[in-house]
Amino acid sequence: MFVILRGEVGGVMLRGATSRTINDLVRDRSINQPDDIAYRFLSDDGAACKEISYRSLDESSRRIGAWVESRGLFGRPIPLIFAPGLDFICAFYGCLRGGAIAVPLSLPSFAGGAGRVSAALADISPSVILVGASEAERVRRELARGRAGLAFDIVSFPEALESQHHGHEPDIDPDVLAFLQYTSGSTASPKGVEISHRNLLHNIGLMAAASQVDERSVGVSWLPHFHDMGLIGGILMPLYAGFPVTLMSPASFLRRPIRWLEAISRFAATISGAPNFGYEHCQREFAGDALQAIDLSSWRTAYTGAEPIRAETIERFCAAFGRVGFRREAMFPCYGLAEATLMVSGQGWSDRSVQRFDRSSLEIGGAAQPARDTEGVALIGAGAVLDGHRVLIVDPASRMICPDGVVGEIWLRSESVGRGYWNRPDESQEVFRARPLGMDEEFLRTGDLGFVWHDQLFVTGRHKDLLIIRGANFHPHDIEHVLESAIPWLRAGFGAVFSVEEEREERLVVAYELGDMGRRPSDADFDAVVSVLSREFGLQPHAIVLVRRNRIPRTTSGKIRRQQCRAEFLAGQLAVLAEWQSPISRAQSEADSLEIRLSDVGDVEQAVRHIFKAHLAELLDVPADHIDEGRSIYDLGVDSLMAARLQNRIEDSLGIRLELARVLDAGTVGSMVQQVAAQVSGRARPRSAAIIDEMFERVAGLSDDEVSRLLALGEHLEAGERRE
Prior knowledge:
Blueprint: H1 22-32, E1 37-42, E2 49-53, H2 54-70, E3 77-81, H3 86-97, E4 101-105, H4 113-124, E5 128-131, H5 136-143, E6 153-156, H6 157-162, E7 177-182, E8 192-196, H7 197-211, E9 219-221, H8 228-241, E10 245-247, H9 250-255, H10 258-266, E11 271-274, H11 276-285, E12 301-304, H12 311-321, E13 331-336, E14 343-346, E15 354-357, H13 359-363, E16 377-380, E17 390-394, E18 408-413, H14 425-432, E19 444-453, E20 456-462, E21 467-469, E22 472-474, H15 476-486, E23 490-502, E24 505-514, H16 523-537, E25 541-547, H17 562-570, E26 576-581, H18 604-620, H19 640-654, H20 660-665, H21 669-682, H22 689-698, H23 704-723
Parallel strand pairs: 1-10, 3-4, 3-5, 5-6, 9-10, 11-12, 12-13, 24-25
Antiparallel strand pairs: 1-2, 7-8, 13-14, 15-16, 17-18, 18-19, 19-20, 21-22, 23-24, 25-26
Helix pairs in contact: 1-2, 2-3, 7-8, 11-12, 15-16, 18-19, 18-21, 19-23
């Protein structure tokens, strides 16, 4: 049967609904709301706030558009590599106004960022890259390592903005490509989704109606501008509806998640959101007394998507922050993907948002309610399909349409669906122009599994093996390719990576056969795998298992069966030769036996070294004297979120503001300690200087337990000063 669902809509008619292109929106806002604030950007400490009006946005983007035209870049892709901030927004709109195709990319950095950016650049072969002023030198340095014959100019944003060009602004057709959205996490085979002005306006219009925003709304977003949820939901939809949005860097949120809630409270935001891990991160990092000045009563739409939505996360978030005005009714579960521009389904919370289903029925592809309400697995519905989309649930093997309550692949037909993948005609044909059995109409194959239950879409997993970890997509074959290239003793083509749920998060597992049957894996071998994963992808594995030869599940044609491998891992049925488990995941914690030796401290650097290693040891759950100062924190297994936590704790303990990029570029733990010590020695004296002095004076004579208590004391007193 056909499944045609309608999403709940409301609100007033928006001026953006009459625009043909994004360029029309920018000009229209400048004419009708010239002095209204379009965007704000908060500094990492939340103290400074930059603003740009619609009039200034129009002027800056027009000048960038003229530069685009002067370089003959109409219809050509222009990669945009910027730190979070207002310059990126002007550059993005400027590319569109000049008729170019904007390509937002992350900064090339540690943890594999340079590799992903280089792979995307190789895919599009640009002639020009536009970069932020403060990032120009860093981009040149990082990309020089992996150009692989590519020839392009790197132009800084001020250079393009200040160039004197006064060309005629081209008339843009709605079906012209606006931008390429590269899927996050991909390295070996990046895919850029082709999104037109028509796709954008159609999807943003549906989102605005479903979330009931208008010119009276107020937004806050920390999501990355190179991610579809951050770019379209956090930057473009506010322009469409005509309301201001306050932006902040993702790193600022990761280090101190309270800054997100402080911004919502400070600006009385009505709409903001995050993937599931963002709400989880808030609960983990907050102390109760930090909420005294927070008021979340203005927050009417708290969207959550981009990764599996967990009922227990929402339950705990509502319980923790309900006392400062957050309402459960504000939760807005949604589902979407870059290939559909962004949102496919979503709606506000109701008593039907959480449903329990019989686990055994789901495992065989059906949805049935359990015998008792308290039993079964709790799933959160992703809401009704938005008005203007058409969704079918299709058996991925037979391509037959499934009835309600049967699990199948989610297929979508809509004006929001992009054209295809850049320079990938065969894959575009397969994914974007699929036909159900007996039908001539073309649909997008999402690769996601789900079912419809009482007019709600429930997403149950992936038909394909895509990994979604902390909102980022990682293709298993990419990770396997990098591992096999970097680790010669892994048996190429005889391994699998997959994710399992651990502590309410998706975590990575690596399972491989050994290339050398006589090899005895050592700790150094496992460390090498951990190092590659951390350095290239910013991931810390949950487990690494090495199995007997020819025991990794494969199809008759020789393809790896990752899902069967996952099931055998969880059931303990893999023929394991040797196994490594993340220190954080070990059954027996070693936290109580930390041996932090702080004798013979003669200077600031030595004191910083002990404090730095104490915090790092706590995060890794290992003894501090097991940390090799000659290795990088990524070789030790620190992922990007743990790096942010490490920075946060060191800043609190030492009363300084770390320059994260400089510290991380230092390389080894020892070099990082020297960088931090140099900042401590040269910093201005904060109000908490007496606390730090006391720590330095006492550190030489402390026992292990006293060190832990003193670090906790410093955090507590610093928090007290921030509240004053």
